């Protein structure tokens, strides 16, 4: 198992690495968001992500990473124990969090628990599925080609059935660092999802619902 440690403090990364390697994990390190995104190419099995980092904080980075790969386990490291920070981190998609200073054995136990839970991810609705390994969307084994942003939106829907996403939610999750500021672009990608899946024969209108004035929701079971 390979773990990516993302923390701007070198001493903290070294300490965490000692704990993890003593338990048999391989480790890679990053000191900021940019280097963490580069290290993703090495396909870590889990990310330990510090919240308090310069420029791009850990919660914002967590949102982007979960958009790229909803199944990638992320454990947040935080020096803040207030409820608001915890809620923000979990809402951003984090699988768990550990408060600094921490006991090494507690950290290892949390990591093992998250890895156990992450082994099964349901991103399949009947014959429609998102293939985690290849990144392909398949319906009755035919591939549906979407743009990367439309794919990211569909993955969010599949990852969070029955959750209502408003337009701004989706924009912030899929375009977290965009210089543009027009959440209406989300609507164009939703139309693409409807069109492409509908053309493939998937009953998209039974699953992807528009809640007028509020946003979009993927229903867990086919209606009708």
TrEMBL record:
Keywords: DNA-binding, Phosphoprotein, Transcription, Transcription regulation, Two-component regulatory system. Residues 2-115 form the Response regulatory domain. Residues 120-220 bind DNA. Pfam families: Response_reg, Trans_reg_C. Gene3D superfamilies: 3.40.50.2300, 6.10.250.690, Winged helix-like DNA-binding domain superfamily/Winged helix DNA-binding domain. The modification 4-aspartylphosphate is found at residue 50. This is Response regulator transcription factor. It comes from Exiguobacterium profundum. The lineage of its organism: Bacteria, Bacillati, Bacillota, Bacilli, Bacillales.
